[in-house]
Amino acid sequence: xxxxxxxxxxxxxxxRAFYLxxxxxxxxxLLMEVGPERTQASGTALGFGKDDHxxxxxxDNERVGEGTxxxxxxxxxxxxxxxxxxxxAAGGTDNGAPGIRAHYHPNYYAxxxxxxxxxxxxxxxxxx
Length: 128
Description:
Layout (H helix, E strand, L loop, with lengths): L1 E7 L3 H12 L5 E6 L1 H4 L5 E6 L2 E7 L9 E5 L3 H13 L3 E8 L8 E6 L5 E6 L3
Parallel strand pairs: 1-4, 5-8
Antiparallel strand pairs: 1-5, 2-3, 3-4, 6-7, 7-8
């Protein structure tokens, strides 16, 4: 299952206004605003979603085209580890070894790889 997707935008405030209006009829709202102190990068990311789960992210913390990101939810941490190893063996580039990302939340266990085109692909387990 896809956990979330994110990409870079050229003008965060313009995109914020656009997505607030465009996604409202779908019941999708702005749920989180994450500044550089939490993203560990410059800029800001906005998380839109439903039911307290942000699953659509935009941000000005990367150049447009470089911020493409997709995350897949998995049931356990072992699967995150297996994903990371398999992706590296298939030619991916390490973009964050398996581990806790407490700056997101205490049980955020994830691994990140760049695919052959530089897309940031993540597997994440939200359980302990």
